Amino acid sequence: MKQLLRLRVNGETREVAFETSKTLLEVLREDLGLNGTKHGCELGECGTCAVLVNGEPVLSCLMLGVEAENAEIVTVEGMTQNGKPHRLQKAFADLGAAQCGYCIPGILLTAKALLDENPHPTREEIRQALSGNLCRCTGYTKILQAVELAAKEIA
Amino acid sequence: MTRKKTLSVIGKPLRKVDAMAKCAGETVYADDLNLPRMIYAKLLRSPHPHARVLGVNAARALTLDGVCAVITGQDLPEKFGIMPSTEDEEALAVDKVRYAGDPVAAVAAISESLAEQALGYIDVEYEVLKPILSIEEALASTEESQRIHTWNRRANVQKAVSLEFGDIEGGFARSDHIFEGTFFYQGNTHLPMEQYCAVGFYGPDDKLTLWSSTQTPHYLHRALAKVLKLPASRIRVIATPVGGGFGGKSDPFSHEICAAKLSMITRRPVKFTLSREECFYVHRGRHPVKMWAKTGVKSDGTIQAMQYKTFLDGGGYSSYGLASVYYTGALQTVTYKVPAYKFEGVRVFTNKPPCGPKRGHGTPQPRFAEEIQMDEIAEKLGIDPLDLRLKQLVEANSVTINGLQISSCGLRECIEKVAERAEWKKKFRKLPFGHGIGFAASAYITGAGLPIYRNDMPHSGVQIKLDRSGGVTVFCGSTDIGQGSDSILVYAIAEEFGIDPVDIRVVTADTDLTPVDLGSYSSRVTIMTGNAAIQACGKLKLMLLEAASEALEVPADDLEFAEGQVRSASLPQRGIGFAECVVKAEGKHGTLGATGSYWPPKNPREFKGSGVGPTPAYTFSTAIVELHCDGETGEIKIDKVWIAHDCGRAFNPLLVEGQTEGSVYMALGEALMEEQIFRKNGLHKIPSILEYKSPTTLETPEIETILVETIDPEGPYGAKEAGQGPLLPVVPAVSNAVYDAIGVRIHEVPITPDKILRALEGRLKAVSIPKFDFPAPLKWQPGQGVQVEQKS
What we know:
The complex is a heterodimer. By secondary structure, chain A is of the alpha+beta class. Chain A has helices spanning 24-31, 87-95, 104-117, 123-129, 141-152, and strands at residues 2-9, 12-19, 50-53, 56-59, 72-74. Chain A has a 5-stranded mixed beta sheet, sandwiched between helices. In chain A, a hairpin with a 2-residue loop joins strand 3 and strand 4. Chain A starts with a strand and ends with a helix. Chain B is an alpha+beta fold. Chain B has 3 domains: 19-27 and 451-598, Aldehyde Oxidoreductase, domain 4 (2-Layer Sandwich); 33-129 and 193-244 and 249-282, Alpha-Beta Complex (Aldehyde Oxidoreductase, domain 3), CATH 3.90.1170; 289-450 and 605-760, Aldehyde oxidase/xanthine dehydrogenase, molybdopterin binding domain (Aldehyde Oxidoreductase, domain 4, 2-Layer Sandwich), CATH 3.30.365. Chain B contains 19 helices and 30 strands. The longest helix of chain B has 28 residues, at 525-552. Chain B is globular and about 80 Å long. Chains A and B meet through helix 2, helix 3, helix 4 and helix 5 of A and helix 1 and helix 17 of B.
C-alpha cells in the first residue's frame, strides 16, 4: 500500500506517495527524481548512498522512507546553495578527488557533516569520519586532501 | 607555423571537464536513466557450479500480472566472447551452466521487485555434474566426460603456450647461482562502486539503442550484432559515464544482450541493474595464478637466464584468457637485461566465475614472483636489492630478448628518486624486528599493440568540428571510466588551438556519433586518442593558418596559436581572435571539420604469441613500502608507500597522481586482504562488500607519488600511461618489506595474518606446482624480424 507523506528534502517540503516498504534511497531516486544519491550495495556496506538526516550521515539504503518523515534530509543536490557549490564540492573538483565520481555524493555529505561539527579536523579525524565510505578509484589521498583544503577555507 | 616553446594547458593541474558535474551529483550514470514506459529485468542464475540444463519452463512466470517477457537460452543461442577465436559464452545457458551464477533465463516486468519475484516461477531442470574447482582438478580431468567446454583441444585446458628466446640452457649453464621458487597470487575482483547496469530500447524505427556502463562500447556493438542477428548499422551503443571499471566492464555481458533482446520482444525500454552479489558472479577479475620462477645469475648478480611456468585458473569461460595467459609471460623481460628467457603458461577452465582483465592484466602475478626472487638473489649475494637492479636495467631505445621495443625509459630515475625520498639506505636491514622496508620495480604497456579482432583500421579515431562561435566540439569513441579520458581530449585540443578548455565540448562513447576508439583498456586511451586528436587539429590548423595569414598579412610560418588568438610569433600584437579566425576560414574553405586517426607502430615480430606485449611505449614504476608487522598477531600495518612512475609526460599531474595513488591503493588491497574465494561446493564464499575486505581510509596509508617525465617520442606531448603500471611494484614490495621486518618470505597474496604466523612457525608450505606437459616451445632468436625505427 502506498502512503502519502511529507518529506523535507534540501529545504523543500515534498509530498510524495510511496510504498511503505521503500527505503529512503529508493524514495529519493525513484519518487523524488534525486538521482545524485547513488547505491553500491543496498545492504549498508559501502557508504555510497549516504545522505544527511538532521545533519547526521545516514545510509539511505538502511532507512525506510517513512522513517524520514519530519526530518531534514540533505542530498548532494542540496549542497549547492543559491547556485553556488559548497566549498567541499569545489575542493574535490580542484584536486581531482572525484575520479569515476560514483562514491563522491556520499563522501561529500559525510565530510560536510564532519566539517559542520568540527570545522578543523585532523587528518586522523577525517580518516575516521570517512572510514565507512568506500572509494575504489582514488586511494583516498586526494579525498583527504580535498577535505583539508575545504576546511582551510572555513574562517 | 612555429612550435610553441611553452605549454599552456598540458602539464597544468586543471580540473577535469566533468569534475563539477560529478561533485554536484549531476552526472548521469546508467542506472540514473529513466525512459518513458521503461520496464525492469532480472536474470535467473544457476545455483549449481556445473550442470546440464535439461529444460527451462517459463510458463508459470508468464502468467503473473505485470510480467512482460521471459527469455531463455533458446532465444539467444549464438555464442559470443571478447576474443574472436574463443567465443564460448551464451547470453543465457543453452545446454549447460559452468559456474554458480551463470544466467539461464531473464525476465522483464513492470517493476524490479516483480521481475525478481517472477524468477521464482521459472522451472529449470538441471542434471548436476561434478564441479571442477582448482587448477589441479582441471588438469587431472582429462576424460572427455569431464569437459567443461567441448570446443577446446585438450580437456579443460583453454590455452597452453610455450616460448623460448635466446640460449636458455647455455644461460643457466653459465650461471654461478640458480634461484628457483614457487608462488601463488590469489584471484580478486574489481569491485567498482557502480554495479553493472544497462538499458536497451528497440524503437519503432527498428533501431536498437543500448546504454551501458561499459569500458568497450565498440566491442559490445559487435557482440550485439552477432548475437541478436541485427545489422550493426541499426545498433547504437552509448557508454554512460562508468562508475569504476578497472577492467571489469570490458567484456560483452549477458545482461547487456538480454536488455536488448527483451526490448526487441516488448518494444519497451528495458533496464537491468545487477545487485552487488551478482557483480561477484560477473567478475572477470584477477586470475588466481600459480607460478614457478627460475633465475640464473653470475656471482655479481647479473642475470644469465630466466624461466617461468604459470598456471592460470580461468573460471568457466574464456573471456580475455587467451591474452591473459600470454601476459603472464610477456613483460618479465622489460625491466632488467635478460639474455635468455623461456616461458610456459596454461589457462584452465574451472567451474567458477570467469576471470579476465583487472588493472595490470596478467602481469602483476609474474611481477610478484620476479621481484621477490630479485630480493632473494640480492640477499643471498649480499648486494643491496637496488644496486642489484641498477647494474642491469634495460635501456631506452633497446629491444628485449623477446622482441619488445623499448622507447623511453625512466627506470633508473624512478629507482634513484624513490630510494632518496624513502631514505632507503638508512633503513634497509637497519630497522628493528617487526619494522621493515621493501622495494620492487616493474614495467607496463601504454596500449596494446594489436586490436582484439584482426583489422587494418585505426585503433582510435577523432573528429573535430569548429563552429562560427569559436566553439570546438570533439567526437571520439573513447570511454571515460573516471580516469579522465574526456579531459585528455580537451587538454590536447586546447593546447593545439591555444584556446581555453572551457570552449571545447566533448561527445564520446556513442557508436552513432563518434568515430571508433577501441575502448578503455590496456592503458591505451591517452596515447591513442591524444595522437588522433592532435592529428585532426593539425589538419584544421592548416586551414585556419591560411585564413589568418591572409587576414593579417603575416606569413603562415610566423603564426602561432596562443592565448585565444592566432597571432604573429615575432610581433604578438598582430593577431586575430580564434573565433574570428574560424569565421574567416569557414568563409574560405566551407564548413570546418577534420578527422584524426592513430595506429600503434607495426609490430615487426611475426611469431605466434608476439601480439601480446608490444605497445607504443612502456612505462616504468618503482615502489618502496614501509610497514610494521606484529610477530604475535601477524597483523600488518602499512606505514607509507613511496611510488615513482615514469609517465612520459604528466598530461595533467593531478590526474596522473590520482591514477598512481589509486593503483597503489588497489595493490595494497590485493597484497593484504582481497580474495575471490569459493566453498568446496563451488559457491562464492564472500559475495558481499562486507565480507570481501577492501581497504578503507583507515588501512590506506600515506602515499607519496614521484612523477618521472621522460617525454616519449610516440606519446602525445610525450605522454605514456599511468592507470595500471603503478599497481605492479607495490604487491611484491609489501612481501619484501615483510621479510625485512620479520625475516620470513611470503610467496603468496594476500599476505594475511595467518600466513605470517604460519611462516613464523615454519608451517607455511611452499606453493605446490601442478604437473603439466607443456607444448614444445616456439623458439625465437633476437634479430629475427625487422627492427622498429625510432623516432628522435
